[in-house]
């Protein structure tokens, strides 16, 4: 019997796959997502659906236009994940067209213009978010106070369709600032942080998400659980989340100790805004982060540092998305300069010195 | 004994239970044996028999050529019926000179070299000569001539002979069974090797998934104070020479050096047993234990197989192939080679013959790399497979070499773990082969250039000499003219 040989070994393979990885990430996001839908009601559910479906639809279109197999590629789950993360970063009641435009930027520009899955330099979800944030600042910073499904403040399905697909005055009346935005505004009015933080949502509220903010960033606790699940499943490693959060916490704590009127404390930095979501789910995006563990530490530190700088000194209250994109740009450089130490070699790549065993 | 961690690695499904409890059985001598003249690393052996010769069991058929080579012996008595180019047991399927021996069924021994009564009283040279003439090569699969490796004590001060019983490849249980059933022979062989190497200490490393083998070896070594049995963690590729050395001694072999440079020489357990046979009984290497396994095999077995036995005979002995198989592999599934033709023979490096079903192989179409970095974190050599593969795909081979391609041991961990099913090792093997070919070409060009330059220089010298001679002749004739004029 003759057998054609078309590849070298190994002739066994771990039961891994891209879609398994994506599914695990989606599973990790599910509890927080369901909780957020409950928290922000029907409009949030519609916003979420619009964003995810836009991403999937646009992915299908791009694949079709580039004459690549549509079905099998969609099955890898990456478009769903991009859409999901994008939705998590949007205001819960964002209008449909803002979501759609964000999806166009995320899928068509950030992902497919670069060559599709694995080729993009920038995190697609963050490109989508930033594009609409700078284009439609009003819609992107109009947050609502949580009103759980079934409660008096929660709109019904019909009203919700109006909020997302039409124009509703309801949104204006319900709008509130996010914790980070509130502190920033107060500071600009000359009210020191040490004072405004007392009236901002407290840490428990930040952890449980019972305050205004983007759809996915308010329930820090459930996001954290999801992130720990991913680490336990070895989908991600601790390096990036710990570096991001550690840097933010350290900078916050140190500077708040120096000048509590100007700087927010470390705990607030950790629990407010997109810190946890960003550290575990955004910054850890495989494609746009360095491949080596030491490189990931540098990358995580950079994101933490830039986020703190933007939050503290720049015009925008939240800087996670900008920080991620800036560090994405540095990823190829980090990968080039920071490699693991090869067996039998020094960090510089020279063979280890021989210091024993010679006659 | 204190162990040291090794970086990276994987935990594949081992599936050793298919054959781990099957005692070694001897294969009846096949009617025809096919013996390639190259079953080892180094130069091919040259035949010393001709068609029609009647040979006895253990008689040399082909002599080793040069320093790194090994002879080939007749595994049984019979007649040489053909010496011709035949498909080699190599993935290329290219032909190789093969001696065909028709067994006469008598299995009659030739006159063997006399047993070495007290090997510990003999010099290194005597032991090495015996090992060399017995055709023994590394039986773990590397097939490097053992006599050469036993000479490492000449240049280096060795402290440890590390006997490799890790058997980290999935499916394979041949070393496990050898250690369980022939522990005393392995220990004796190891002690002889340590003596030849001048290494005071023998450490036998066995992965923790072989408790019976560890137990049997401990028992057999109990009377030997300088022999230690050590259990090492189950972690592929624990059995890689440099990694095992690091795990057991903590010494990291520098790149482009040998483990001998850090005082350790690694040999396989089955090699130790073969050396025991050669030294104590004068028996050359005529057979080896092969694990025939995989879900595609009806009755998986561990078999003592005469070298040269066609794979077909081996499969037949195991009840044949069971249903649809996806891959037929020689060796383990991680580093083994695909078998191109079931007519090829078992050679010295054949540790296993695996018939693997689609479920076991789990091959899927390659998807785009998502840069998950798993290949980087599991690479036991500390390389960046994703980057090397990307460079190789664009034929930027020199750049791939610059970031460590030649440090890759082709263990296959990256390919195994890749969620996008990128055949990383396939790229690396391609690039290594291509770079080697380029290097050979370059050396050939340089050689040609040097020869051409030498020739030109020589012609120039000749021409110059002629010119000088002509000038001298002219000067002389002018002188004589002047003389004439004077006269």
UniProtKB/TrEMBL annotation, chain A:
Belongs to the NqrB/RnfD family. It comes from Magnetospirillum fulvum. It is a multi-pass membrane protein. Its main location: membrane. This is Ion-translocating oxidoreductase complex subunit D. It is found in: Cell inner membrane. HAMAP family: RsxD_RnfD. The keyword Transmembrane helix applies. GO terms for biological process: electron transport chain; transmembrane transport.
TrEMBL record, chain B:
PROSITE patterns: 4FE4S_FER_1, 4FE4S_FER_2. SUPFAM superfamilies: alpha-helical ferredoxin (SSF46548), Nqo1 FMN-binding domain-like (SSF142019). [4Fe-4S] cluster 2 binds at residues 379, 408, 411, 414. The keyword Lipoprotein does not apply. One of its GO terms (molecular function) is electron transfer activity. Pfam families: Complex1_51K, Fer4_7, RnfC_N, SLBB. Gene3D superfamilies: 3.10.20.600, 3.30.70.3270, NADH-ubiquinone oxidoreductase 51kDa subunit (3.40.50.11540). It is found in: Cell inner membrane. Keywords: 4Fe-4S, Cell inner membrane, Cell membrane, Electron transport, Iron, Iron-sulfur, Membrane, Metal-binding, Repeat, Translocase, Transport. Its EC number is 7.-.-.-. The complex is composed of six subunits: RnfA, RnfB, RnfC, RnfD, RnfE and RnfG. Belongs to the 4Fe4S bacterial-type ferredoxin family. RnfC subfamily. HAMAP family: RsxC_RnfC (MF_00461). This is Ion-translocating oxidoreductase complex subunit C. It comes from Magnetospirillum fulvum (Rhodospirillum fulvum).
């Amino acid at each position: 019997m003759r057998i054609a040989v078309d590849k070298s070994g190994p002739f066994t393979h771990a039961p891994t796959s891209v879609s398994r990885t994506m599914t695990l990430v989606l599973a990790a996001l599910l509890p927080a997502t369901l909780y957020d839908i409950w928290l922000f009601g029907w409009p949030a559910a519609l916003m979420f659906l619009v964003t995810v479906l836009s991403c999937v639809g646009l992915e299908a279109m791009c694949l079709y236009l580039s004459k690549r197999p549509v079905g099998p590629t969609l099955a890898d789950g990456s478009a769903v994940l991009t859409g999901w993360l994008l939705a998590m970063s949007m205001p819960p009641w964002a209008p449909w067209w803002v979501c759609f435009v964000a999806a166009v930027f995320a899928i068509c520009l950030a992902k497919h213009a670069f060559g599709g899955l694995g080729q993009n330099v920038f995190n697609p979800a963050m490109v989508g978010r930033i594009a609409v944030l700078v284009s439609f600042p009003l819609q992107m910073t109009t947050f609502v106070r949580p009103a759980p499904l079934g409660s008096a403040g929660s709109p019904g399905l019909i009203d919700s369709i109006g909020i997302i697909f039409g124009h509703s005055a309801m949104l204006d009346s319900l709008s509130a600032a996010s914790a980070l935005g509130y502190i920033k505004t107060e500071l600009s009015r000359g009210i020191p942080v040490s004072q405004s933080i007392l009236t901002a949502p407290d840490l428990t509220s930040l952890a449980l998400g019972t305050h205004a903010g983007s759809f996915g960033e308010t329930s820090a606790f459930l996001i954290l659980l999801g992130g720990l699940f991913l680490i336990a499943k070895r989908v991600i490693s601790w390096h990036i989340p710990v570096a991001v959060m550690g840097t933010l916490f350290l900078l916050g704590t140190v500077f708040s100790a120096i000048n509590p009127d100007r700087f927010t404390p470390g705990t607030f930095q950790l629990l407010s805004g997109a810190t946890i979501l960003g550290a575990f789910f955004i910054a850890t995006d495989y494609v746009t982060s360095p491949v080596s563990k030491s490189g990931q530490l540098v990358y995580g530190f950079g994101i933490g540092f830039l986020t703190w700088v933007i939050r503290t000194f720049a015009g925008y209250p939240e800087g996670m998305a900008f920080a991620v994109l800036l560090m994405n740009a540095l990823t190829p450089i980090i990968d080039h300069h920071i490699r693991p130490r090869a067996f039998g070699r020094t960090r510089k790549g020279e063979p280890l010195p021989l210091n024993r065993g010679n006659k | 004994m204190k162990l040291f961690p090794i970086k990276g690695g994987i935990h594949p499904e081992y599936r050793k239970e298919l054959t781990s409890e099957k005692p070694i059985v001897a294969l009846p001598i096949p009617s025809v044996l096919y013996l390639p003249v190259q079953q080892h690393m180094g130069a091919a052996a040259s035949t010393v028999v001709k068609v029609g010769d009647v040979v006895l069991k253990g008689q040399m058929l082909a002599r080793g050529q040069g320093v790194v080579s090994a002879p080939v012996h007749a595994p049984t008595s019979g007649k040489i019926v053909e010496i011709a180019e035949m498909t080699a047991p190599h993935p290329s399927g290219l032909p190789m000179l093969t001696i065909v021996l028709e067994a006469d069924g008598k299995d009659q021994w030739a006159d063997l070299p006399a047993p070495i009564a007290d090997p510990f009283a003999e010099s290194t040279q005597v032991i090495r000569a015996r090992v060399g003439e017995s055709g023994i090569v590394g039986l773990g699969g590397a097939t490097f001539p053992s006599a050469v490796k036993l000479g490492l004590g000449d240049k280096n001060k060795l402290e440890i002979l590390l006997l490799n019983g890790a058997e980290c490849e999935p499916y394979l249980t041949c070393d496990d069974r050898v250690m369980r059933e022939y522990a005393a022979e392995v220990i004796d062989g190891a002690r002889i090797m340590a003596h030849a190497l001048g290494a005071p200490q023998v450490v036998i490393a066995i992965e923790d998934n072989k408790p019976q083998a560890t137990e049997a070896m401990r028992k057999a070594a109990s009377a030997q104070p300088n022999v230690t049995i050590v259990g090492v963690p189950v972690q592929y590729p624990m059995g890689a020479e440099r990694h095992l050395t690091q795990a057991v001694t903590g010494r990291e072999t520098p790149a482009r050096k040998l483990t001998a440079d850090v005082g350790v020489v690694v040999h396989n357990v089955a090699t130790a047993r073969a050396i025991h046979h050669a030294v104590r009984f004068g028996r050359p290497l005529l057979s080896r234990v092969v694990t025939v396994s995989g879900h595609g095999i009806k009755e998986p077995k561990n078999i003592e197989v005469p070298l040269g036995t066609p794979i077909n005979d081996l499969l037949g002995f195991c009840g044949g192939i069971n249903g649809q198989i996806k891959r037929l592999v020689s060796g383990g599934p991680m580093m083994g080679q695909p078998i191109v033709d079931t007519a090829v023979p078992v050679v010295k490096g054949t540790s296993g013959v695996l018939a693997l079903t689609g479920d076991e192989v789990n091959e899927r179409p390659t998807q785009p790399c998502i840069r998950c970095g798993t290949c980087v974190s599991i690479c036991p050599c500390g390389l960046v497979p994703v980057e090397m593969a990307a460079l190789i795909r664009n034929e930027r081979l020199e750049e791939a070499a610059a970031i460590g391609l030649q440090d890759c041991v082709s263990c296959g961990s990256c390919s195994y773990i890749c969620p996008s099913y990128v055949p990383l090792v396939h790229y690396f093997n391609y690039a290594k082969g291509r770079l080697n070919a380029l290097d050979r070409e370059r050396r050939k060009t340089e050689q040609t250039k040097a020869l051409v330059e030498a020739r030109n220089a020589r012609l120039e010298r000749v021409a110059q000499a002629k010119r000088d001679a002509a000038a001298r002749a002219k000067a002389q004739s002018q002188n004589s003219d002047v003389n004439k004029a004077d006269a």
